[in-house]
User: What shape does this take?
Amino acid sequence: MDFYKVYMKQEESGASVVETIERFGLYCVEIPFKPISDVKEIASRKWYDEDGLDEYIPVGGLKLSEYDIDIKFGYKGDKFSANTAVNSLVSYLLEGYVSLYDTYTKIGRQHVRFVKLNDNAELVRDGDGDILIFSVTMRVCDPKTNITLSK
Assistant: This one.
């Protein structure tokens, strides 16, 4: 069975590309990348003795705003192994900015950082092992540059 993959790379010289299934045993369930983010608020002034609104459009056009995404991961493994997989991913993300590429949406972004591990995880732990669905919030600080990663 084919799975869509998520590739990550630490934004430091010499860092190698990792794939989440291979490195952490985590399958991407959902990654809501935006093809384009919202536009930043622009400077404006409302003159009460004139009609309309005066707005300042920066040289080069409108600028895009950063945005947060909640990436949902799934894990299936031996009993009591889910915590290790989650901790491994979080430790990797805490090292700083990463570049992130999703093979399903074909969208990749650079300067992406960890924000939080969400508390809406679902864990099933029984004789067959651990099944875990959880999500992490990431902030996309460069919403415009599209990158591609592969192994």
